[in-house]
Write a structure and sequence with these properties.
about 675 residues; mainly beta; 51-stranded parallel beta sheet; 4 helices
Length: about 675
């Protein structure tokens, strides 16, 4: 950014103010207003510049890596042309992209390709302060072409520098033929096999007790310990007794650091209140109606039709076996509760209805048309079939449905104190925001199906925001998501998360039933536990007939274009069949390109119990010991799976695999160059 030009513009503006010594108060105020507006505009423009810098940096990194690889193939290549092609391919238009060969950088005897990406950002709102034209946002990156034996990029990397940094035991194996298996500290093979392009101990020893080491090269700083009888390892020419600089490639990633800072965030919960309902007279619609209800009686029957109007009611009572209809266009307030007898039919029409003092629908249920339905605190009982048209629904009480009862509402915002469904009780909500202050609990073959909108779910007294038991189903549409407590699902249940930039969960995410994760980031202030097994996708809603989770067919936990950022650990257990794929590219404020799961926790991560997982992307737990046991199978399923952890241990028949292809296509353990970012 041309800061000197900016400063000069501000100084000239202030000087003009000083020269006008005779200015009146009105003049000063008039001159001050553009300053205030301009300051806001300047902040807006600077924020645009920050966003441009993030994009520039990402493109500079990719261009530096790609250009360096091309240069190592052919040192006569036009590095400027290569860098510009990469920038264009990544959607960066109107930028200046320069590539330069640096000698003796970052160390003497080494060379690097540096790529600088600059793009002008025009001033918009800051023009009020006199800023005109544009300012330049620049980012640079460098990729080294090192003069040492090359090795493939690690897709299994243990960051601990001590003993037993990466250990394979028993019948376990790690299979990664196109990338490295590496540890900063000691690497011990006591299991079946480690297969990799390169097997590396950056600063320690490699020990082969049993099984095999299948690789193009072995690299170790200390010693290579092999029993005389075991020759299942690369030959002497492919063993390199040399220290290898290994580091966490995500340690200072700007996007990841920003995502970590959002752990524990969630949209604030609004308050619910009771409606205003003035005191009126009791209305009784029955075979012996109150005097104020008699005019609406149709002959001597139990059928009542109330014309459109404003009705202020103290207590509304409908006797058993009667029929009551309010004409559309009414406003109805009830201050002391609604009680409807069994077998009655009640239709409030397209009206605005406000109720305090409790609500009992009777056995048949009620019908509300389009309009506002606002029920205050107290006992709320919906039995039978209850239908609500479009319009906001506010129930400042505990809504509980069971025994095959049903409640549906059309488009509009839907707010509840709590929702409990069981015994086949079902609720269908149209598009619109869903707010539940004290949690959602579903069990017993019941379903809650809600449309697109913002979801904000508070915690129950037991600490859960969402709890699914047995064959419960919760299908959610797309929209912002906040859960202020644990999400806990049990075997046989199903939950669908919609698509949004960031799903905020301020508690544990425990999945024992099936789960489908819509695209976006999942920020979890707790553990992420997958103990699923038995119920697989796709599944069809019994309420709207829509099919969910077809992309995850055959899996019980599935999701694509997802990133999970947690404060706790990642647990994989049960008979889980999971398929989770990170996004190829980042979304601003959402998923992080190639990052599948991250946690800074020091708690151990246990992957066990016969779980079978297909993970595409990076699982990044730099301070965690990841233990794969009990027949666990975790691999990329043809995609690139990378595990970066404090320690990595595989035992008891566990199998870990990856189909990653190294970014250095010439790496085979016998080359003389490698490419990596150094700036």
């Amino acid at each position: 950014m041309n800061w000197s030009h900016t400063a000069n513009t501000i100084r000239r503006f202030v000087a003009r103010l000083r020269e006008d010594a005779g200015a009146s108060v009105t003049t000063i105020v008039a001159l001050s207003l553009p300053v205030v507006i301009g300051a806001v505009g300047l902040a807006f423009d600077l924020n645009r510049g920050y966003g441009q810098r993030v994009m520039n940096q990402r493109v500079a990194d990719m261009a530096a890596l790609t250009t360096a690889m091309e240069y190592q193939r052919d040192d006569s290549v036009d590095i400027d042309a290569v860098a510009n092609v990469i920038a264009m391919a990544n959607g960066l238009q109107g930028a200046t992209v320069d590539a330069e060969l640096l000698s003796d950088f970052p160390n003497e005897g080494e060379s690097s390709i540096q790529v600088t990406v600059s793009r002008d950002v025009p001033f918009a709102l800051a023009s009020v302060l006199g800023f005109s034209g544009s300012y330049t946002v620049t980012a640079d990156s460098a990729a080294i072409v090192s003069a040492q034996a090359s090795y493939a990029t690690p897709c299994f990397l243990a960051l601990d520098s001590g003993n037993a940094s990466l250990v394979v035991n028993g019948g376990a194996s790690i299979v990664a033929p196109n990338c490295s298996v590496a540890a900063i500290g000691d690497l011990d093979q006591k299991g079946s096999s480690i297969q990799a392009s390169d097997i590396i101990s950056g600063s320690g020893d490699i020990t082969l007790n049993s099984g095999s080491l299948v690789a193009n090269s072995l690299r170790y700083a200390g010693s290579l310990n092999v029993p005389q009888w075991n020759n299942a390892l690369p030959g002497p020419d492919d063993r390199h007794n040399v220290a290898t600089g290994l580091a966490d490639p995500w340690e200072n990633n700007v996007e990841l650091l920003a995502a970590i800072a959002q752990i524990g965030d969630a949209d604030p919960l609004p308050a619910l209140a009771d409606p205003t309902t003035p005191t009126g007279s009791d209305y009784t619609f029955s075979w012996s109606p109150s005097s104020n209800a008699v005019p609406f009686r149709q002959g001597t029957s139990g059928n009542f039709i109330v014309p459109a109007g404003n009705y202020t009611i103290k207590k509304l009572t409908v006797g058993g076996g009667n029929s009551l209809t309010f004409a559309s266009g009414s406003t109805i307030t009830v201050s002391k509760g609604v009680s409807i007898g069994g077998g009655s039919t009640v239709n409030f029409g397209d009206s605005n209805v406000y109720i305090n003092g409790g609500f009992d629908s009777g056995s048949n249920g009620v019908t509300f048309g389009n309009g506002v339905l606002w029920i205050g605190s107290g006992t709320v009982s919906f039995k039978g079939t209850n239908k609500k048209g479009d319009g906001d629904v506010i129930i400042n009480g505990d809504m509980s449905l069971g025994g095959g009862h049903y409640f549906s509402a059309g488009k509009g915002n839907h707010s509840f104190k709590s929702i409990t469904l069981g015994g086949g009780g079902n609720t269908l909500l149209g598009d619109g925001d869903l707010t539940v202050l004290e949690g959602i609990k579903i069990n017993g073959n019941s379903e809650l199906n809600a449309g697109d909108g913002e979801y904000n779910i508070g915690a129950s007294k037991q600490g859960y925001a969402i709890k699914l038991e047995g064959s419960a189903r919760l299908f959610m549409g797309d929209g912002a998501f906040s859960a202020h407590g644990d999400i806990d699902t049990q075997g046989g249940s199903a939950i669908v998360f919609g698509e949004t930039n960031n799903h905020y969960i301020t508690g544990d995410l425990k999945i024992a039933g099936s789960a489908f994760f819509g695209p976006g980031r999942y920020t979890i202030d707790g553990d992420f536990e997958n103990g699923t097994g038995g119920t697989t996708w796709p599944q069809t809603s019994s309420l709207n007939g829509e099919q969910y989770g077809s992309w995850g067919a055959g899996y019980d936990m599935a999701g694509y274009d997802v990133s999970f950022i947690a404060s706790g650990t990642l647990k994989l257990a049960g008979g889980a069949k999971s398929r989770l794929l990170a996004a190829a590219q980042s979304v601003l404020g959402g998923e992080i390109g190639t990052m599948l799961f991250h946690s800074d926790t020091t708690s151990k991560a246990s992957w066990t119990g016969g779980s079978g997982n297909i993970f595409g992307g990076v699982v990044h737990m730099p301070n965690t010991e990841v233990s794969m046991t009990g027949g666990n199978s975790t691999n990329g399923g043809g995609a690139c799976f990378m595990l970066i952890a404090g320690k990595i241990k595989a035992a008891g028949g566990a199998v870990a695999g990856s189909a990653c292809v190294s970014s250095d296509e010439t790496s085979s353990g016998s080359g003389n160059t490698t490419v990596k970012l150094v700036k």
